[in-house]
Amino acid sequence: MARFLLIHGSCHAAWCWDATIAALKALGHEATAIDLPAHGDGTPPEAVTLADYADAILGALDEPALVVGHSMAGVPLTLAAESAPERFERLVYLCAYLPGDGDSVGTLRRAQDSQPLLPAIRRERGSPVFGFDPELGRQIFYNDCSDAVAEAAIARLCPEPIAPQEERVTLHGKAQALPRSYILCSRDGAIPPEFQRRMAGALPLADLHERDWSHSPFLSDPEGLAALLDKIAGATPAQTV
């Protein structure tokens, strides 16, 4: 049995993991998900920092766990692990931004050779948040989901604070020294698969797991995602505390 903490990406919240949590529990694991600040908890988005995201992750870790970060959550996940590596059994990056020292979500996105998100981003002048055009959400996030699942997810997307995505992380090797896995989604319409592969190059090849999934396998194939996480957990020695 393993413990999992699941962290959502931009404009999503803990709800996106419901089916995956059920699938992980069916396999005998403990699993939970959290809302990051300003993603449904009432926190004013203009007040949120990247450190707040990292603190929320750490606050949810009563015991060491395998922590899965999706998309932009790869950055606060790494920052949290840098601050308290003893709380993490493994970092799992699910088609996520995997930062090095000095990186941010914004710098990593701009380093991509292609920018599939840009046409879909919607922001009012001066607003501290952005969102995505619902007409483009299907092809970007949910291109292998059923119509019903995609439509329900698009209806639940929330505004995303901008400032934390431009904050850079300072890393001294503590997060990088932890066991880490990368799940590359080859049908991803948000973060180009070739860029995912470039980021995952920092990890041993055995810790790269490529699947024919969109950006949101927690919705399109939660049982398959749970099975892969079960496999990853089996390769992770349990910590004693």
TrEMBL record:
Recorded GO MF terms: methyl indole-3-acetate esterase activity; methyl jasmonate esterase activity
Start and end residues of each AB hydrolase-1 domain: 4-227
SUPFAM superfamilies from the UniProt entry: alpha/beta-Hydrolases
Pfam family, one: Abhydrolase_6
PANTHER family referenced in this protein's UniProt entry, alphabetically: AB HYDROLASE-1 DOMAIN-CONTAINING PROTEIN (PTHR10992:SF1086), METHYLESTERASE FAMILY MEMBER (PTHR10992)
Name of the protein: AB hydrolase-1 domain-containing protein
Originating organism: Salipiger pallidus
